[in-house]
């Protein structure tokens, strides 16, 4: 049975059971910061499960594309190596919200799998698991379905940790959860070899999980604490790729019809005959995921979802490298995904975006190969220098962290070169780095975590008012709710009504004071999550108690500067779209009182002229002093106005729309001026690429623009004074100076070449001739390695058979270079000469038979050692009867 047919049958089955078919939702969870990607079919129904939202329809079915590459559900390292794991997969599911529960869902699953009208799977092939506390589910399987008791496996908690079990499903660290029952298919073919399955480990060994029925009964609010959901619900998931493998009687989902077509197309396109199935599987899996993510406006980068995409692409490219693909190839494969990803109820817009997708992939590949080239050069250098056949684990990690060279490629090359690596040490280094990153991330988000302890809601009333009478409703000190805060203590105040804007919409939180007769609290930052607002700071003097009346005063000067930058960011966004079209996609912003950053996706580069035109457009809008209106309206009406909004964000029915004439209409909850004239002026101070097709503009407004221009003028005056030029055209003076420097450099190069030629002649004249082989060994002070190399090359151009040993002390380190001409390396080579030197002076070095370099032990009697070196080399030539 073909994969597409299985999907159609599944949806048809549940449609006949009065389920509404819904589309696969976006891979980017809407308005949900607890998830990196959509990892289950139930994600789009989360608010219904939690009871926040009610729908007229109680039962749904879908075929949902999911990604599991991080957090609790992370299959990334298994992909390609294990038969049924993918970064992106299709999840068939049925969902019920109060209409039916355990018994009906189990009966539906059994009917679809075993009935002759549907999948016709043999009952003898099916095994079931259930959570040990869920006796109701156990009885349904035994009494209603009549499953053989020895095909029913009990699953307990792991390590005696409550609700930590393979059969207690959780979406993440928090959210809807509940017991589940899993359905397994026995993949064993030979009946004679079939052993009785007694436990979960044996079950996983002989069977593949095909369907999981989750009974959503609880909401996990923190570790080990569950509360009952208002309506018990059903969430099931059956991997389409897995069930296809079962029905097509293949041992891996990579061998199913759709994957086989994709892998064959890949092999044909990249013209590779390799049978390295793991690498081909990984490339096939990863091109699906990368193509779909880019189609949803995720671009390769260094953080969050962007980093996951980059990691997926680079893993595929690394495996391409393993099978001999050393030039960009990955971008060509995205076209094959169109056929696989345009089936029923899936809308990735791949077809219309294919050229953009290919361009982004090609750009990322070129960047990767550049990184790979530098990393490979550094690795080869390390291998040459290292003579112990061992590579330092710190060096491997350094190559990965600094130059981006994948550890897998380093391992593979070292394996081929028979260079050993201590994997235990390497894993420890990687683990330590992860811990450092985690600690850094925790420290970065420690303010956000404080919102967990807030139980009292606040009303924000600070768009126009900077001072507000209010009341303290909660005080948090050392992560605990307390009744008062003492002098000099750091804590959090919660107010019933506040003029302080909490950090959101890219805008930083307000700072200021909360005061009454008893005390003064300095607010350093304001954080918010929904209706919960935290005023973070310290009590400068006195004492403040819960229930007391206070006056909240924000730093108005700071707020006005923030508003200038926020309103200017809207003007910039609109100007970019007006000038470069609707393919400008906002990727983030950061707005404070000093400057603002605006990140956007655009496939071409902005020129200096483009930047200047943007500045003129925006400053003209500022000069016109256009009114800025904040309009509260419905989301559907805002769409009719063609308001700009983030497609990845989920908006409520009521939204706030910021209108600057018809020039800029954008959904935003941030604070703004009443008119553009209050911005003062606008200046772009920096423009750069921060990722693949992602640009960042940094700009300033108001008085900081004047300061910026004054600093520029002062610098120009200093340069003018330095050049002793009174004219305003310092460009000509600098150009004249640059030309003069170029001439001096050329003169220096000519003199250096003359010097090298003279040194070479002197060394040749002092050379020792033995058996028509010249031995040149000399101690030359204060020359760089490049000079030694040039001297060596000059001598080799003039003489046919020569051994050159140049020892140099430029700093406190003694370096050496050994060079041997081609015609004698079969008798004596540079490495042989280096080993003779090391028998006299300790040091380290590396290279090839023609040339080696390295360092020697610092010694004051180097001239005496050089004599010994010369004698030993002559002796070696004599003893080995070496002739020209």
TrEMBL record:
Primary location group: cytoplasm
Subcellular location: Cytoplasm
Domain Alanyl-transfer RNA synthetases family profile: 1-711
Residues annotated to bind Zn(2+): 566, 570, 668, 672
GO biological process: alanyl-tRNA aminoacylation
InterPro entries: aa-tRNA-synth_II/BPL/LPL, Ala-tRNA-lgiase_IIc, Ala-tRNA-ligase_IIc_anticod-bd, Ala-tRNA-synth_IIc_core, Ala-tRNA-synth_IIc_N, Ala-tRNA_ligase, Ala_tRNA_ligase_euk/bac, DHHA1_dom
Gene3D superfamilies documented for this protein: 2.40.30.130, 3.10.310.40, Bira Bifunctional Protein, Domain 2 (3.30.930.10), Threonyl-trna Synthetase, Chain A, domain 2 (3.30.980.10)
Matches recorded under SUPFAM superfamilies: Class II aaRS and biotin synthetases, Putative anticodon-binding domain of alanyl-tRNA synthetase (AlaRS), ThrRS/AlaRS common domain, Translation proteins
UniProt cofactor note: Binds 1 zinc ion per subunit.
CDD domains: AlaRS_core
Catalysed reactions, as listed in the record: tRNA(Ala) + L-alanine + ATP = L-alanyl-tRNA(Ala) + AMP + diphosphate
Cofactor: Zn(2+)
GO cellular component, one term: cytosol
EC numbers: 6.1.1.7
PROSITE patterns in the record: AA_TRNA_LIGASE_II_ALA
Pfam family, one: tRNA-synt_2c
Record comment regarding domains: Consists of three domains; the N-terminal catalytic domain, the editing domain and the C-terminal C-Ala domain. The editing domain removes incorrectly charged amino acids, while the C-Ala domain, along with tRNA(Ala), serves as a bridge to cooperatively bring together the editing and aminoacylation centers thus stimulating deacylation of misacylated tRNAs.
Subunit record text: Homotetramer.
Assigned protein family: Belongs to the class-II aminoacyl-tRNA synthetase family.
HAMAP family according to UniProt: Ala_tRNA_synth_B
Entry function: Catalyzes the attachment of alanine to tRNA(Ala) in a two-step reaction: alanine is first activated by ATP to form Ala-AMP and then transferred to the acceptor end of tRNA(Ala). Also edits incorrectly charged Ser-tRNA(Ala) and Gly-tRNA(Ala) via its editing domain.
Name of the featured protein: Alanine--tRNA ligase
């Amino acid at each position: 049975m073909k994969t597409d047919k299985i999907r159609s049958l599944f949806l048809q089955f549940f449609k006949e059971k009065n389920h509404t078919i819904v589309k696969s939702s976006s891979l980017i969870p809407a308005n949900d910061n607890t998830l990196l990607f959509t990892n289950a079919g139930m994600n789009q129904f989360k608010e219904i499960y939690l009871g926040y939202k009610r729908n007229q329809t109680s039962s749904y079915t879908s075929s949902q594309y999911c990604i599991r590459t991080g957090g609790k559900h992370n299959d990334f390292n298994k992909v390609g190596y294990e038969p049924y794991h993918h970064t992106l997969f299709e999840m068939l599911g049925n969902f019920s919200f109060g209409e039916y529960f355990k018994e009906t869902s189990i009966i539906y699953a059994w009917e679809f799998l075993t009935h002759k009208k549907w999948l016709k799977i043999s009952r003898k092939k099916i095994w079931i698991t259930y959570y040990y506390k869920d006796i109701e589910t156990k009885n349904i399987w035994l009494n209603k379905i009549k499953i053989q008791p020895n095909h029913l496996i009990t699953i307990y908690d792991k390590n005696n940790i409550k609700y930590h079990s393979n059969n207690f499903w959780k979406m993440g660290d928090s959210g809807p959860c509940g017991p589940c029952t899993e359905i397994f298919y026995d993949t064993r073919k030979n009946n004679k070899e079939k052993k009785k399955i007694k436990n979960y480990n044996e079950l996983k060994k002989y069977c593949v999980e095909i369907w999981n029925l989750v009974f959503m009964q609880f909401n996990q609010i923190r570790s080990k604490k569950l509360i009952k959901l208002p309506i018990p619900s059903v969430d099931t998931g059956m991997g389409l790729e897995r069930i296809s493998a079962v029905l097509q009687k293949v041992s891996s989902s990579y061998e199913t019809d759709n994957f086989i077509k994709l892998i064959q197309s890949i092999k044909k396109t990249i013209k590779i005959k390799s049978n390295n199935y793991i690498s081909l599987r990984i490339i096939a899996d990863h091109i699906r995921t990368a193509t779909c993510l880019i189609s949803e406006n995720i671009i390769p980068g260094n953080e969050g979802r962007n980093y996951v995409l980059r990691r997926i692409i680079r893993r595929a490219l690394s495996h391409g490298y393993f099978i001999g693909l050393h030039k960009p190839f990955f971008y060509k494969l995205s076209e094959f995904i169109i056929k696989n990803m345009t089936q029923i109820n899936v809308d990735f817009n791949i077809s219309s975006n294919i050229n953009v997708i290919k361009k982004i992939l090609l750009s990322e590949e070129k960047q990767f190969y550049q990184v790979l080239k530098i990393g490979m050069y550094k690795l080869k250098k390390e291998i040459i220098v290292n003579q112990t056949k061992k590579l330092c684990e710190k060096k491997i990690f350094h190559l990965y962290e600094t130059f981006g060279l994948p550890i897998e490629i380093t391992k593979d090359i070292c394996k081929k070169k028979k260079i050993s690596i201590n994997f235990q040490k390497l894993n420890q280094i990687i683990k330590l780095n992860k811990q450092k990153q985690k600690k850094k991330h925790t420290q970065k988000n420690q303010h956000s975590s404080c919102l967990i302890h807030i139980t009292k809601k606040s009303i924000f009333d600070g768009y126009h008012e900077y001072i507000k009478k209010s009341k303290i409703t909660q005080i948090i000190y050392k992560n605990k709710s307390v009744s008062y805060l003492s002098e000099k203590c750091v804590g959090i105040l919660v107010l019933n009504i506040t003029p302080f804007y909490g950090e959101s919409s890219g805008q930083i939180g307000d700072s200021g004071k909360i005061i009454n007769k008893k005390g003064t609290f300095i607010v350093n930052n304001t954080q918010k999550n929904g209706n919960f607002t935290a005023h973070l700071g310290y009590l400068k003097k006195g004492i403040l108690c819960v229930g007391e009346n206070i006056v909240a005063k924000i730093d108005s000067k700071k707020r006005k500067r923030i508003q200038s930058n926020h309103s200017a960011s809207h003007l910039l966004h609109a100007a970019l779209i007006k000038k470069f079209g609707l393919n400008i996609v906002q990727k983030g912003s950061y707005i404070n009182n000093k400057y603002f950053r605006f990140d956007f996706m655009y496939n071409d580069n902005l020129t200096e002229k483009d930047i200047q035109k943007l500045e003129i457009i925006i400053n003209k809008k500022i000069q016109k002093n256009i009114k800025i209106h904040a309009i509260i309206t419905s989301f559907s009406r805002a769409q009719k106005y063609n308001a700009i909004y983030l497609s990845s964000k989920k908006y409520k029915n009521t939204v706030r729309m910021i209108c600057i004439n018809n020039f800029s209409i954008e959904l935003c909850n941030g604070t703004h001026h009443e008119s553009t004239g209050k911005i003062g002026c606008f200046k772009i101070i920096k423009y750069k690429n921060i990722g693949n097709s992602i640009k960042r503009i940094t700009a300033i407004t108001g008085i900081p623009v004047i300061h910026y221009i004054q600093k520029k003028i002062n610098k120009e005056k200093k340069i003018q004074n330095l050049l002793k030029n009174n004219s305003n055209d310092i460009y000509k003076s600098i150009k004249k100076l640059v030309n003069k420097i170029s001439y001096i450099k050329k003169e220096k190069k000519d003199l250096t070449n003359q010097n090298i030629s003279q040194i070479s002649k002197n060394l040749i004249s002092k050379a020792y001739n033995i058996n028509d082989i010249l031995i040149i060994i000399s101690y030359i002070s204060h020359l760089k390695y490049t000079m030694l190399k040039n001297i060596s090359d000059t001598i080799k151009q003039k003489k046919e058979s020569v051994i050159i040993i140049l020892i140099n002390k430029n700093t406190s380190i003694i370096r050496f270079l050994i060079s041997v001409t081609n015609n004698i390396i079969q008798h004596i080579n540079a490495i042989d000469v280096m080993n003779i030197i090391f028998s006299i002076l300790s040091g380290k070095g590396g290279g090839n038979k023609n040339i080696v370099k390295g360092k020697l032990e610092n010694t004051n009697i180097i001239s005496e050692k050089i004599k010994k070196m010369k004698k030993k080399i002559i002796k070696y030539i004599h003893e080995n009867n070496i002739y020209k």
